[in-house]
Every structure is written in C-alpha cells, then in structure tokens.
UniProtKB/TrEMBL annotation:
InterPro entries: ABC_transp_permease (IPR001851), BCAA_transport_permease (IPR052157). It comes from the Bacteria. It comes from Variibacter gotjawalensis. One of its GO terms (molecular function) is transmembrane transporter activity. This is High-affinity branched-chain amino acid transport system permease protein LivH. Belongs to the binding-protein-dependent transport system permease family. LivHM subfamily. The gene is livH_11. It is found in: Cell membrane. The lineage of its organism: Bacteria, Pseudomonadati, Pseudomonadota, Alphaproteobacteria, Hyphomicrobiales. GO terms for cellular component: plasma membrane.
Length: 318
C-alpha cells in the first residue's frame, strides 16, 4: 500500500501543497517543449518533402552552432557571423540536394535514410576537423540575448523565470508559427505538399524537386541554427547537443511525422511530461528518468495510436 500511495497520491499532494513549485516545473517543461517542437519541425519539413526521416538533423543543430561560435572566435563580428552561418546552411542544403538527394531520386526510402546516416558522420568529422571537439560557450550576450532571471510572487512563494528561457520560448514560438503559416499558405508550401504526396505527380505539373529540396533543407538548417543558439545559450555548444535533438523522435511519434501542428503539440507534451515525471516521480525510480521517459510516452502512443495525434491513418486493402 505504501508504494501505491507514493505513486498515485503523494505526487498530487505535493502539487497541491506547493502550487508555486508546480508552476515552476510546468514553465521549465513548456520551455523545453517549445524547443523540442522547434527541433521536430526540422524533421517534419524534410520528411514531408522526401518521405525520409533525416537522422542528420541532430548534428545539423551542432554544426550550425559550432559554425556561429567558430566564426566569432576567428574575429568575425557576432551578427556578421550569424549571417555567414545562414549562408553556410544554404550551401549545405544545396550540397545535400546535389550530392546526396539528386542521385538517389526514386530509390527506396531506406537508401535515403542511410544516406542521412552518412551525412551525420561526415558533419561530425568536418566539425571536429574545423572547430575541434571541446565544448564552446554560445555567444549569447554578443547576440543581445538576455541574462538573469525574474522572480514572480505566486501562491505564497515565487516562480523564477530565466530571461534566456523567456527569449527562447518567444523566438521558438514565432519561428514555429511563421514556418507553419509559410508552408500552409504560400505557393512553396503548396508545392511542398504536392511533393510529399507524390514525386512523380509533382514533376508532371512542373514542380522542381531540386528547388523544393533545397528550400526545405535550408529551412531545416535555419531551424537547426535557432535551436543550437537557444540550447547552447542554456548550456554549452558541444556534440552532446545532437542527443538532445534526437528527443524529437518521440515528439514526432506523438504528433505525427507529417504534421506541423503535431510537432508543436507533441513537443509540449514531451517537455511538460518529462519535467513533471522527473520532479514528482523521479525519486521513486532513482532519478534520471528524464533521459528515457519521453521514449516510454512515445511507446505508449505507438501501442494505441501509431500514426500519432495528427498523423494520417493509412488503411491498406488486401
């Protein structure tokens, strides 16, 4: 009975007894969830255009952040380094289309998926060759990202909001909303949806696969850069960031691999769920459950709704 009390009653008693602490945990979960949604958006864009899960999205986050910091360390002013990093991500998108995607058109999806594995290790090697393997500090202050925190009195206590977390949540939310509107209501967005439905049909109506792929990979690169800046400002820039980026996988399972709204909702569910689970139920399991709880939530969704909350349910008749 004691263990049942600790699992099903005590955590909720703690929530009711310290609502200010609950708000603090929810806030941290929401910030993490928005950043997860931003990472997942990069995966969704490429999956919608090519039908392939881009395993390299995680290392793109690291590579973009390392490029920004590396250029600044070479003496390039911060905002010029930011603009040059955007140019590097455009060059990467064009190179991927020319060297990887174009020769593999109409090949099985597993071939393209394995190609993204190769791209991952190529970028790891290139990043270590150019920038080294040691962690670096993000140039947050040079980019005028805020420092410090705000204490808000609430429920007899206080909730501390880090200013960098507020900025990260606002910037990530604006980027997610902007990209969602862009791909939903513009000509490029309609072309993207046509390419996602059928490459051959899109080609038959004059849509350029090469152009769409460059645009989508460039958009994913911009998302990777923004993610690298925000995560790097909260911790540091290192190759370990690619592990955080793979948290997008459970987000995609929850929201659906082809849904931009699904990436947003899935990110929030994972972000809030893992923070609440770690804080209130983590001590029962020896702590550290934040590293695997997201995957357990995703597994539960796979059992009952494998297409995700917003994914399309595919029915095959035999």
């Amino acid at each position: 009975m004691d263990i049942l009390y600790k699992i099903f009653i005590d955590p909720f008693m703690q929530m009711g007894g310290a609502p200010d602490l609950l708000i603090q945990v929810l806030w941290e979960g929401l910030v993490g969830g928005v950043l997860y949604a931003l990472i997942a958006l990069g995966f969704v864009l490429i999956f919608k255009a090519s039908g392939v899960f881009n395993f390299a999205q995680g290392i793109m986050v690291v590579f973009a952040a390392l490029t920004l910091v590396g250029l600044y360390e070479k003496g390039v002013p911060a905002f010029l380094a930011l603009a040059l990093t955007v140019g590097v991500m455009l060059l990467l998108a064009y190179s991927v289309e020319r060297i990887v995607l174009k020769p593999l058109v109409n090949q099985p999806d597993i071939i393209l998926f394995m190609a993204t594995f190769g791209l991952t290790y190529f970028l790891i090697g290139l990043g270590e060759l150019i920038f080294g393997g040691s962690p670096k500090q993000m140039i947050a202050s040079q980019l005028y990202l805020p420092k410090g925190s705000i204490d808000i009195p609430m429920f007899g206590g206080s909730v501390m909001l880090q200013k960098i977390d507020i900025a990260a949540a606002i910037i990530a939310s604006l980027m997610v909303a902007g990209l969602a509107l862009f791909f939903q209501y513009t000509r490029i967005g309609r072309a993207l949806r046509a390419v996602a439905d059928s490459h051959k049909a899109a080609l038959s109506v004059g849509i350029s696969l090469e152009q769409i792929w460059v645009i989508v990979w460039f958009a994913a690169g911009i998302v990777a850069l923004a993610t690298g800046i925000m995560w790097g400002a909260r911790s540091e820039v290192s190759f370990a960031l690619q592990i955080i980026a793979l948290k997008a996988l459970p987000v995609l399972i929850l929201g659906g691999f082809t849904s931009i709204p699904g990436a947003i909702v899935g990110g929030l569910i994972i972000g809030v769920g893992e923070k609440i689970g770690e804080f209130y139920w983590g001590p029962l399991l020896g702590n550290g459950i934040e590293s695997w709880l997201a995957y357990m939530i995703a597994l539960a969704f796979l059992l009952f709704r494998p297409q995700g909350l917003f994914g399309e349910k595919i029915i095959e008749r035999i």
